[in-house]
Amino acid sequence: MSIAITTQFICFTVLSLVVIIGALGVVLLESIVYSAFLLGGVFMSVAGLYLLLNASFVAAAQVLVYVGAVNVLIIFAIMLVNKKEDLKPINDINSRRVISTSICLTLLSLLIRVDLTNVWSLSSPQNSIGEESTIRIGEHLFSDYLLPFEVASVLLLMAMIGAIVLARRDVMSKDISTGLPVDQELIEKSSEPLLTNKN
Amino acid sequence: MNLESIPLQAFLIVSSALFCIGIWGLLNSRNAVRVLMSIELMLNAVNINLMAFSSYIDNNLIQGQVFTIFVITVAAAEAAVGLAILLSLYRNRVTVDMESFNLLKW
Questions:
Q1: Which of A94, A101, B27, B45 could pair with B18 as two cysteines, CB 3.0-4.6 Å apart?
Q2: How far is B32 from chain A (nearest CA, A)?
Q3: Cα(B58)–Cα(A181) distance, integer angstroms
Q4: A87–B30: do the CB atoms touch at under 8 Å?
Q5: ipTM beyond 0.85?
Q6: Which region holds residue A54: left if phi is over 0, alpha if psi is between -120 and 50, else beta?
Q7: Which residues of B touch A75 (CB under 8 A)?
């Protein structure tokens, strides 16, 4: 990488702060819409971290797939299901919070301990292949990773068909039991929930 | 600091923190969409890990970057199917509260 080391440090600090604070905002903010937009910011900052690691192709793929597809999909899903509802109170919510937070903090301290105490046999990132990495990824994808590449394409096809089948609403022109024409616009709002809540 | 480059440990710590935040959100969210977002955060943490190791340890055969590409592919498929499941669940239950999806609870 040709950027000066000080600039790299500044970029890394800013990007990691954005990643961590943005992720905290995603899980802690009250409004789900703010969370979705913050998630887009986190994805962009992760792409910036990839650029710092000399991986321009993966950074571009991250921006295209995560920010351009996944985040937009999440925002559309929020628009479809975002209804103001009063959540049922849970009686032991505080103990749950305490237990899950302590588990997460324990895991974090364990991971950080492993990160810092292990001796990594590093080769210098200065000799990295840089811009040639895109060519190298293409060579990998069409030689030794050819089978996973093809399986991934089949997986995407299956996911596409599955998503269409799951999210499609079966529109019928007339009601089966009565024979009357169905009011198409209100088909969701008028129908009773199929699974009633047991609690 | 007098270093030649950013240490590998810095990237690992960032990804550990991101992963733990994702787990916390996964355990504590009431909204099902936020659960999916937490899963995306965890996948991103794993991707940062893979990319850091690929750049610092294996910088000639960048196999970590290829793995990251595959993880991004699987994450996109997962998000599409997950949100479709969420929509059909919302159609049946008219809520996205995780606490009301308890049909399989014994």
A1: B45
A2: 10
A3: 65
A4: yes
A5: yes
A6: left
A7: none
Identify the helix (H) or strand (E) that includes residue B89: helix B63-93
Cβ of residue B22 closer than 8 Å to a chain A Cβ: yes
CB nearest B38 (choices: A27, A49, A133): A27
Give B-chain residues touching A127 at CB under 8 angstroms: 59
Q: How far apart are CA A159 and CA A147, in angstroms?
A: 18
Domain B8-94 has CATH 1.10.287.3510: yes
Report mean pLDDT in 10-residue bins for chain A, 199 residues: 81 95 94 94 95 91 94 92 75 88 96 90 64 87 93 95 84 65 54 53
Can you tell me the distance from the alpha carbon of A34 to that of A173, in angstroms, rounded to the nearest whole number?
39
Question: What are the tokens at A109?
Answer: 């301290």
CATH number of A1-82: 1.20.120.1200
Token pair, residue A147, equals 């089978």
How far is the C-alpha of A158 from the C-alpha of A19, rounded, in Å?
32
Write out the two tokens for B33: 């969409």
Structure tokens at A4: 């000066």
Check CB contact of B41 with chain A, cutoff 8 Å.
yes
Residues of B with Cβ-Cβ distance to A65 under 8 angstroms: 72-73, 75-76
The two tokens of residue A181 are: 């024409």
The chain A residue lying nearest B20, using CA atoms, is: A104
Q: Hey, which residues does A96 pair with through a beta bridge?
A: none
Q: Token match 């600090």: residue? A: A13
